[in-house]
Amino acid sequence: MIDFTLTEQQKNIRDFLHWFAETEIRPIAREADRLGDVPPGFFKKVKAMGISMEAIPKDVGGEGEGAGEVKDRRGQRQTNRLSVIASEEMAWGDPAVVITLPGPGLGGPPVRLIGTPEQKERFFSVFRAEEPRWAAYAMTEPEAGSDVAGIRTTARKEGDVYVLNGTKTFITNGARASWNVVFATVDKSLGRAGHRAFVVENDRPGFKVTRIMKKMGLRASETAEFVLDDCEVPADNLLGGEEHYQRQGKEGFKVAMATFDSTRPVVAAMGVGIARAAMEYAADYLKQNLMLDRPVPAYSRIRETLAEMKRKLDAARLLIWRAAWMADAGLPNSREAAMAKAYAGRVATDVCTLAVELMGPEGASRDHPVEKCFRDVKVYDIFEGTGEIMRVIISRRVFQALGEAG
Amino acid sequence: MISFELSQDEQSLAGMAREFAETRLRPVLRECEAGRGVPEALGKEFFELGLATLALPEELGGVGLGPLSRAIVWEELAWGDLGAALAMPGPGLAAHALMVLADGAQRAEALEPFAGRDGFRRRGALALFEPGFGGPPEFRTVARRDGPDYVIDGKKAMVLNGGLADLVVVVATLDPEAGWDGLAAFLLPGDTPGLAWGPRRETTGLETATYADLVLDGCRVPAGAKLAGEGAEAFGRFLAELRIEAAAQAVGLARAAQEHAARYATQRKAFGQYIAEFQGVSFMVADSATEVDAARWLTWRAGWALGLEPGAGTGHPPAGELAAAAHAQALAAARFVTDRAVQVLGGHGYVDDHPVEKWMRDARAHAVLNAGGNPAWSDARLADAALGLTARPAPKGVPA
Ligand SMILES: Cc1cc2nc3c(=O)[nH]c(=O)nc-3n(C[C@H](O)[C@H](O)[C@H](O)COP(=O)(O)OP(=O)(O)OC[C@H]3O[C@@H](n4cnc5c(N)ncnc54)[C@H](O)[C@@H]3O)c2cc1C
Ligand SMILES: Cc1cc2nc3c(=O)[nH]c(=O)nc-3n(C[C@H](O)[C@H](O)[C@H](O)COP(=O)(O)OP(=O)(O)OC[C@H]3O[C@@H](n4cnc5c(N)ncnc54)[C@H](O)[C@@H]3O)c2cc1C
To answer: Which residue's alpha carbon is nearest to atom 4 within ligand 2?
Structure first.
């Protein structure tokens, strides 16, 4: 049955996270942006307040629903719907702080998806520590971004270890992580079939962080570049074990891609959260100000712009919910996840740009948060697959469906 | 619990409507356009399938569907041919007025002729929008009380089924200063003295349907012709119904064009390869597919909310606001997607070998002629919401 009602649990989590975003995240957001990091003490404070990351769904960095959980739960799961609702709300507070919350982050899904029970236990147990811990997902290289198949980091088996060599860049939380999921190739001539996913602990010899990148926005989030210089990891750190890749044959690459169908809607939802914040702020500002002695909102062009911002964000949210609902129902959702990401990425970026514009010169001032929304949101049309790559995926699926229909 | 799954009933309704659209409307879309109407036999079939009376309760010979189910059906019909679907016999848009604004007796009396043997030959019309740019609160058609009667004076623009209708619902204001609160609707037989239709208007699209202007000159009706519902609450709900239906129509139109263009792209070659392989083309296809889905979910959400019991807490903005969002977005999507479809077909899209040029004209016309009114008014409603300026509390008849 068609239904757009949130469950009680979803409502409670949304309301809690809204409160959390408003009272804990927003007050430090500006400072975090200036520092280029989340202020020291934030995580302690959050913990001391008795807020456990349990309440924060796993895919947005928390441990809710059990990060180390081994079983893949079937049936009426609502993990994905919960994740998109939660991430919109937290990103409304501040996206950079949110993706810096301790937890396995994007490193979690591949381990959960193909890790052996032993690996899940070993890698997720790190997060039981008192101190905050992170993990990260390292695919991108200087010469391979969208073209994931073109990664050059190599893995060479020597006895019971793998030796890794290469450079990974743009890795969120890559330096502060306890471990990175590193994608490498065991044989370039095999193309995608040669891809393997390894867990590389950051304290392995040969793992070297080379720089923390300075960015337009999302500045409080750490974006790291690291090299693997004859970095040895035990063969046990090959995610899923050798058998997994023998079973999958050419499909080794699917590991990397499969996680996107559930993470893209989450990322898209964060974009919507940022843009919603910008829109709300701009609308409030307009209401309180006069232009040529008339209330600003009396100008029809301004009203039209606001309306368009509002309905497009709503449309984006519904595309996101649709993709998340499909993931929960176990339906293949690559097309819908890409639609959600493509549309939300574009719309959220436009909305933040327009929010700056609606406020005139004040929009560009660091005294107001909209300029920061504008800087933060742009990357939501880039990472986890650019808007163009999303369109490649969507069109391919549309054409495929025509073929299937005869 | 958030879910996008159609119920069994909705699936079979959609299937029935799609079959009619595919086997009855599509094959004659150009003939109907050239003939400026639908053949009587086709109208009869439409009527007998219940497609003309979706909203009416079963005891009045209708199908008794809520706004969401109707939106699902309308998407399919519009996918077949929107102009033809609008030109079909039946109470048409007057049915919405009768459902939302009339009391039981008025409704039964007005609809009785449609249940008879010749029901399929009858048509209803809704005379709502006026020449100029004003929306409902600025209407200038005035109904003045005069003893046992009302006397109506004013003008209505581009009324669907104008000149053909046996039954006309005229919306007028009882007090031009009262805005939404002054609105009322009157039920007029098509031959009421003082009710004069202008000639059929020629339009850029939706040419199968008939639009004409209406002049009301001292048009005298008994007080009983005034429908029971009046004022902001009733008309808020009424307009939400109209907007959702128009949005669903726009989604169907857009989907037709999107599918046609996608298929064409996989069959047409240029520079030695299928044009689908050029990203300049495939991205248009991707964006179009996404716009169609986005508009549909907004439409479904609005239909879902409006169909709930009044006062049901949905956790979403009021249904009237959701309807405005769906309306403005879906009409914009239809214009975008039909334009992209012509573009994908190149010169072949511009001539009548393919229906995309028609669909692009239809979408353009629909955006200004549709029953939900000018999308700019929907946007104004949304702007009020964005600014927290919703002066009126949510109408009582509309779920919060
Ligand atoms: C703040 C930030 C955080 C990030 N975090 C992570 C992380 O945690 N882990 C990680 O692995 N990566 C991360 N990334 C990297 C991110 O995923 C890549 O930047 C992204 O995938 C794009 O790759 P690229 O930058 O190499 O651009 P390129 O692939 O070089 O693309 C350049 C342009 O060409 C377009 N293009 C490329 N291929 C095609 C095509 N086939 N058709 C049409 N257009 C095309 C792109 O859309 C883009 O517009 C992060 C990036 C940023 C900015
Ligand atoms: C009213 C009218 C009058 C005309 N008059 C004349 C005339 O007097 N003389 C004359 O010679 N012609 C005339 N034409 C033809 C016109 O020039 C062609 O229709 C036009 O060049 C497009 O070619 P096509 O229709 O075959 O589209 P196609 O070439 O089939 O293109 C279909 C789609 O694919 C896209 N596409 C094609 N190749 C690429 C590519 N490499 N990369 C990205 N996208 C691509 C196109 O942009 C288009 O969207 C006329 C057409 C019309 C409609």
So the answer is: B347
Distance, CA of B168 to CA of B186 (rounded, Å) = 8
Note whether A316 contacts B294, CB cutoff 8 Å: yes
The ipTM, to two decimals, is: 0.88
Which residue CA neighbors atom 16 of ligand 2 most closely?
B347
**Number of domains observed in the structure of chain B:** 3
User: How many residues does the structure list for chain A?
Assistant: 406
Q: Which residues of A are catalytic?
A: 384
Q: What percent of chain B has pLDDT over 70?
A: 97
Instruction: HSE, CB side, 13 Å, CA atoms: give it for residue A358.
Output: 36
* Of B79, B90, B73, B89, the residue nearest B37 (C-alpha): B89
Compute φ and ψ for A221, nearest 5 degrees.
Answer: -90, 135
A173 CB within 6 A, ligand 1: no
pTM of the model: 0.92
Phi and psi, residue A201, nearest 5° = -70, 140
Phi and psi (nearest 5°) for A382? -120, -55
- Residue B68 pLDDT exceeds 60: yes
Asked whether residue B35 carries a pLDDT value surpassing 80, the answer given is: yes
What is the CA(B95)–ligand 1 centre distance, in A?
Answer: 53
Give Cα B245 to chain centroid, integer Å.
5
Best probe residue, ligand 2, of B268, B278, B342, B344 (max atoms within 8 Å of C-beta)? B278
Q: Are residues B261 and B377 both part of a single domain?
A: yes
When pLDDT is cut at 50, 70 and 90, the band that residue A251 belongs to is low
Long-range Cβ pairs for the range A139-144 (8 Å, 24+): A139/A168, A139/A183, A139/A256, A140/A168, A140/A169, A140/A170, A140/A171, A141/A166, A141/A167, A141/A168, A141/A169, A142/A167, A142/A169
Could you tell me the residue range of the domain that residue B346 belongs to?
A: 231-386
What is the pLDDT at residue B252? 98
**Mean pLDDT in residue range B370-377:** 91
The per-residue pLDDT for range A77-93, each reduced to its tens digit, is: 788 999 999 999 999 99
Which pLDDT score, from 0 to 100, does residue A128 have? 86
Q: Which of B225, B260, B279 is the last residue of a domain?
A: B225
Give me the domains of chain A, ranges plus CATH numbers: 8-109 (1.10.540.10), 135-249 (2.40.110.10), 252-405 (1.20.140.10)
Q: Is residue B289 part of a domain?
A: yes
Atom of ligand 2 minimally distant from the CA of B351: 53
Length of chain B: 400
Which residue among B90, B115, B140 closes a domain?
A: B115
Listed in sequence order, the residues at least 6 apart from A329 whose beta carbon sits closer than 8 Å to its beta carbon are B5
Q: Is the pLDDT of residue A54 over 90?
A: no
Residue A315 near chain B (CB below 8 Å):
yes
- For residue A294, pLDDT over 70 is answered with no
Chain B segment 74-103 residues within 8 A of A by beta carbon are: none
Look at A388 and B283 and tell me if their CB atoms are within 8 Å: yes
Please report the pLDDT score of residue A121 as a whole number.
94
Contact flag B4-A1 (C-beta cutoff 8 Å): no
Q: Which DSSP category does A208 fall into? A: E
Neighbours of B360 (CB within 10 A): 25
Mean pLDDT of B53-81: 95
Sequence-separated contacts (24+) of A118-122 with Cβ below 8 Å? A118/A236, A119/A199, A119/A236, A119/A237, A119/A239, A119/A240, A120/A68, A120/A70, A121/A68, A121/A70
Please identify among residues 232-291 of chain B the ones whose CB lies closer than 8 Å to any CB of chain A: 262-263, 265-266, 276, 279, 282-283, 285-287, 289-290
**Residue B344 Cβ < 6 Å to ligand 2:** yes
Geometric angle at alpha carbon B252, from B93 and B5, rounded to 5°? 100
- Set of chain A residues whose Cβ sits within 8 Å of the Cβ of B378: 307
Angle between helices B279-307 and B231-265 (to 10 degrees): 150
Nearest-CA residue of chain A relative to B2?
A4
